[in-house]
Amino acid sequence: MRELTYYVAVSTDGFIAGPAGEFDQFLFEGDHAAGIWQKYRGTAPTELANAAGLEYENGPFDTVLMGWNTYAVGLPELPNPYRHLRQIVFTRDHERPEGADDVEFTDRDPLEVVRELKAEDGGGIWLCGGGALAAQLADEIDRLALKLNPVLFGDGVRLFGDRSYDPAALRPLAITPYESGVVLAEYARA
């Protein structure tokens, strides 16, 4: 059975984006970049990976899931951001943008879609964001991989949106600190 991994950058105070959706304070360069890329190869948009000379084949994921706000970050320049992966965007209110021919848009229940994906053959499933979608899928997340950044946002998009209190136990797999201040914290469902 395929696993769903929520792999995302997060501020030290638990936000995946600031109040206006900004994420420019996250560290994209530094000693953490190469090590994290080796482990999570293929998690950059295809054009950006190509421009940086990063190999994205044979990564842990063959499918990426996004909410509309996460997907829309790249518009209009990147309407088909992860061409090397199967891309599914959850939205009820938006139409397919021009150039997004290889992106699946759905208004279906994310839980149903993820359960169907897990039952299929294939590689890992990457939940790229956002927080509201992560809150809906919290009980289906098998692994959590956080690029914990040494920055405080104070407000913004929470890691798990406005999820109601429903504790779920996780067990640590690896905690890898880097000189840049980024910490890769990886967990599995207990």
UniProtKB/TrEMBL annotation:
It holds the Pfam family RibD_C. Residues 4-184 form the Bacterial bifunctional deaminase-reductase C-terminal domain. InterPro entries: DHFR-like_dom_sf (IPR024072), RibDG_C (IPR002734), Riboflavin_Biosynth_HTPR (IPR050765). One of its GO terms (molecular function) is 5-amino-6-(5-phosphoribosylamino)uracil reductase activity. One of its GO terms (biological process) is riboflavin biosynthetic process. PANTHER family: 2,5-DIAMINO-6-RIBOSYLAMINO-4(3H)-PYRIMIDINONE 5'-PHOSPHATE REDUCTASE (PTHR38011:SF11), DIHYDROFOLATE REDUCTASE FAMILY PROTEIN (AFU_ORTHOLOGUE AFUA_8G06820) (PTHR38011). This is Dihydrofolate reductase. It comes from Aeromicrobium phragmitis.
